[in-house]
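tool_call: predict_structure(chain=1)
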Amino acid sequence: MTGLMISLLLLAVTTQVPALPSGPALLAKTIAYHDPDGSWMEQRVEFSIETGYADGRTLVRLATVDYASAAYRDRVEEGGRVLEQEVRGDSCRLSVDGSEEADAALLDELGLSCESARRRRDYVSYLWGLPMKLKDPGAHVADEVHHARFQDRDVLDLTVDYDPEVGTDVWHMYIDPATARLVGYAFYKTPAEENGEYIVLEVERAVGTARIPAKRHWYEIPGGAFLGTDTLLEGRVLGAGAR
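tool_result:
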């Protein structure tokens, strides 16, 4: 084989494998897919979310997230009671069956507290704001992107970790290489990535101008035990958020 033929063969092989984007570049692409006009983080959004658990229980939560100010409120009917919680700045409001006068013992029994309300705010706003929330302060997107397999498909693996005061989990975002659509993710609670959960995303729903994954199926790591499904029944933009 001549030197020219070898050179052409090597060129053909190398051109079949496009260079991977950097982590920040891939994040920019997936955000552009899901939030094409770049407005999501300035909006106040209402979600109606049905959660189905592995044991067959279901509940529906009506949640409003103000992404601009981090204010949050939600309402859920659980155990025959209507539970409401609201977080605004440093204050919070808790209500049981329309009353804010519930005693501490009842609130404790129902798992309601300002701390739990803030955790719920962070949970809902983060998961239903991905991938846009990966631009939050304290998030660190790895420079290097990897090829991976997720649910029998080829994906790009974008790794994100956080400042310790923000979070200790390591997240892997699985992104379709052709469209830059987020198709799933996993988070790990240990440095060795032995324990955590992975989430399979299905369906998309238009919420304003954004494309939001509407079904999230949760599984345990290790073992793959099914944990539950979150389904976006309805989502709508209420307007610009308040700062």
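agent: Helices lie at 3-15, 23-34, 104-110, 114-127. Proceeding to next step.
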